[in-house]
Amino acid sequence: MSNADLDRTVLVPVDAITVVNPRVRNQKVFDEITANIAELGLKRPITVAARETESVGEPTYELVCGQGRLEAFKTLGQSEIPAIIIDASSEDCLVMSLVENLARRQHRSLDLLRDIRRLKDNGYSEQEIEAKTQLSAKYVHGVIKLLESHEHRLLRAVESGKIPVSVAVDIAGADDVGVQTVLRQAYEKKLLRGGKLLAAKRLVEARQKHGKGQASADRGSRKSLSVESLLKTYENDVEKKKVLLRKAHATRSEMLFLTQSFKTLMADENFVTLLRAEGLATLPKTIADRLTRMEDA
């Protein structure tokens, strides 16, 4: 920690900090961060922005960067954490958090997609996103194109971890012949190996045969039902249940008929003698139990 940072650093209650852009963290990496902080202490303070509260009391803060360090302090049972307090709006905090996460060398593909989308939604141009994230123009353009061209099949594959976002971008920008080159290069770069390579090939074949996929498969894009379609769905469901009930009543009647028939036959001494002669004097336990219950009723 530099002297300049020490001059600007204050202790902030961990419970007063809100994470505006939460991430799902790699547990192994998080455990290493926690162990390192426990042994050596915090090397770099987190960054927060102060917020005014309506009621008189302790101030609250929004986290700009340092979620891993903050969570490590909570895990270690610390009530306060060194922080640099900056003056920034909530929107600026979100954007700075997105940029800080995008600038990392290690990030999840899904996080990368979402962060670029959120920057785009906040009004930043492709050139501004490139400058802030230090990502190449081709890469940023490819990701935005992937989102805007509704490549639902590729997006689902990225979200499920089947293919890296870089490979999805290359597939979206290639023709049918070029896609094979993309897969070969991904294999050579060790981005796709084994089962992931086979899954990527099946994905490409499905995309070529059936298109980009349906928007209804994406979360948040469910097609709303009209009153008429909802009523029709309800009527169809009621009709299915009526058919099911009719089948159940018919089956019950047949079972009662068969059980009564067995009871009548078993009361006939000549029939029972014939069964004994053929070595069939015993009945399956289920049928015998049912006959017993009928006699007891």
TrEMBL record:
SUPFAM superfamilies: KorB DNA-binding domain-like, ParB/Sulfiredoxin
One Pfam family recorded for the sequence: RepB
Annotated ParB-like N-terminal domain residues: 10-102
Signal peptide: none
PANTHER family found in the cross-reference section: CHROMOSOME-PARTITIONING PROTEIN PARB-RELATED
Protein name, per record: ParB N-terminal domain-containing protein
